[in-house]
User: What shape does this take?
Amino acid sequence: MKTLSLYDILLLLLLLLLLLLLLPLLVASASVDKEAFIGVNIGTDLSDMPSPTQVVALLKAQQIRHVRLFDADRAMLLALANTGIRVTVSVPNDQLLGIGQSNATAANWVSRNILSHVPATKITAIAIGSEVLTTLPNAAPILVSAMQFIHSALVATNLASQIKVSTPHSSSIILDSFPPSQAFFNRSWDPVVIPMLKFLQSTESYLMLNVYPYYVYKQSNDAIPLDYALFRPLPPNKEAVDSNTLLHYTNVFDAIVDAAYFAMSYLNFTNIPITVTESGWPSKGDSDATLDNANTYNSNLIKHVLNNTGTPKHPGIAVSTYIYELYNEDLRQGSTSEKNWGLFYPSGAPVYILHLTGSGTVLANDTTNQTYCVARENADKKMVQAALDWACGPGKVDCNPLLQGNPCYEPDSVFAHASYAFDAYYHKMGMADGTCNFNGVATVTTSDPSHGSCIFPGSGGKNGTVTNGTTLAPSSNSTSSGCHLQYTRENQAFLSSLIVGLILHSAAFW
Assistant: This one.
């Protein structure tokens, strides 16, 4: 046996050192897709839809790295080329029947919409239809066939390993959804759901689920606290508890996702992950569709997802989520709230500035200096007065502007004066977490409360939200319409079961 020379030993040690240095990088690159991400849906029902180039400029400015299209628009896919942005494209519902009935049609769709764009455009998933079971039930029998045909075309072109195939579902296909441990899929859909789950399992794909706590809250008739829908912190005695598993639920979002996990396990599918393809909150339209509620929900959702919190059933397991949606869509049919789910106006100006300090860079440009602390409109007046006295006393806020004859004296009301004092304290403390609470009578807002000559701390002196990102000129170019689906009777069945379950299983709500 040959004795190793000193040179050989040193070489082996060097190779070992290189291996140790590279191993973390190899592990990180192998697990990058296991980290949760936040994406954005791009609907196009706008009278002044920006051009694809302008859309991509906004995505880059906001460091949005994942998007979902409701079609496979060629101009949009070309604009996304060489950006590194990961794209989920869709087979629209009106194309589903043809693809589900013909392997050749599916292969042609893949050739035209996928092969002509990869690898320059990073297409990572294909969504087959949208909420087909609840909105296009006549197409349900061919849904799985369409998924299989599209997947077969990807296999034939060696793309199946990098592009997953699935289909987005309304959460209303889940019945008896609280507590989550007793949830199950509507059994009338078993002939579709079971083969679909087998397909997802065999292709290592994921269940696409649309999750809307806004609708759950709206239909609860106050049985569900607003804070529970908005991810606001709840004391332990206010959390909903699954009586079968003793798991505690602090928000509606997690309860719905876990209901889907349990529904799959009821059918003996325990290893299919979930990606939430739509979730959000409207900023205008009714008493609960407000800028502050939309901001609170989406800000907390983003932090919840990016922290890899997971759910009570699967803590630490990523639940990547696409926010509905990038732009307000003024051409959408339905109520005012249906038109106002967007994060941005067509110009690129934000509808509101998200509260994302310390939560990474996605959608977090220029947020730290554009938030204000004001008194809650529905807060107890005596508690607001006590908080105002504290801010101007022990809180050491300069309340001279509130004295008679000074700029912020008018309007002479407890709430108006408290809002100024609260905001002064909030900015004095560097807008740190917990500095806009005042025993629950204060809230953070992105709307500048300055008025007349009364300029609030942190304000540039102008009313309204300061924009972030890139201001983009509007364009008349428009692609096909987005497919966010309005609330349906099937949703009511799901919500009713969730609401009744919450009432029966969580005495904390009473």
Q: What stands out?
A: The longest strand covers residues 122-128. Residues 100 and 271 are 26 Å apart (CA to CA). Residues 6-31 form the longest helix (26 residues).
